[in-house]
Amino acid sequence: MTADEELPKIPVVCPACETRSRVAFDDVESAVARHNEQLHDGDAVAEVDPDVMDQLADRVAEDLGLYE
Ligand SMILES: [Zn+2]
Predict the structure, then answer these.
(1) Looking at the 3D structure of the chain, how many domains does it have?
(2) What are the tens digits of pLDDT across the range 44-66?
(3) Which among 9, 19, 41, 56 is least surrounded, fewest beta carbons within 10 Å?
(4) Full-model pTM
(5) Nearby residues for ligand 1 (ion, Cβ within 5 Å)
């Protein structure tokens, strides 16, 4: 394991806190869940930047095609 990650950091935005942070791809789901649990009583307030989500969805769809 090195500090250099192959996967991009994912921007997570929280409109309520007015924060924007970048989280490692592997950790993004738990980071969002943790934030929402700790600061918003479990409401889904923070989320992955929707623009990036679209790009990721496209890329994941392409990647999945490789495993067919
Ligand atoms: Zn928040």
Answers:
(1) 1
(2) 999 999 888 888 788 888 888 86
(3) 41
(4) 0.70
(5) 14, 16-17, 39, 46
